[in-house]
Specification:
single chain; Arc Repressor Mutant, subunit A; 4-stranded antiparallel β-sheet; 4 strands; 40% helix; 12% strand; globular
Length: 107
C-alpha cells in the first residue's frame, strides 16, 4: 500500500488502501510469502538481508514476477509487526513510503 496525500493526518490508522483490498484480506499465498521471507532470513547470518524477489521465487517458481508486489506487502506486514525491517542502501526506511529496490532483514 502506498501513502496517499488524503491520509496524511491519519496514516497510522490506515489499514487498507481500498474497499477491494479490505474485502480480499490476507490470502493463503500472502501467508506463504511471509513464511518464505522468515525462512530465508533464518537460513542466513543474522546481519544478512534478502531481496523480496527471493521470497517470490521460492513461492511462485516461474510465476514469481506477479508475486513481487504481494511480497513487498508481506514484508510491510512483517515490518509492522516488528519482525523484520525494510532497508535501502543499508539504512532502515519506512516501508510504507519506500520507493525502488528494497532489502528485508531481521530486526
Amino acid at each position: 500500500m502506498q501513502w496517499r496525500k488524503k491520509w496524511e493526518r491519519s496514516w497510522d490508522e490506515v489499514r487498507h488502501c481500498s474497499r477491494a483490498c479490505r474485502q480480499r484480506g490476507v490470502t493463503p499465498t500472502d501467508r506463504e510469502l511471509e513464511s518464505a521471507i522468515l525462512r530465508l532470513l533464518a537460513d542466513r547470518a543474522r546481519s544478512s538481508s534478502i531481496c523480496p524477489s527471493e521470497a517470490a521465487r521460492a513461492v511462485g517458481a516461474e510465476e514469481w514476477q506477479s508475486l513481487m508486489e504481494p511480497t513487498r506487502a508481506a514484508a510491510r506486514r512483517l515490518a509492522a509487526e516488528g519482525r523484520v525491517e525494510i532497508t535501502q542502501g543499508k539504512r532502515r526506511v519506512d516501508p510504507s513510503t519506500a520507493k525502488g529496490p528494497i532489502r528485508i532483514r531481521l530486526t
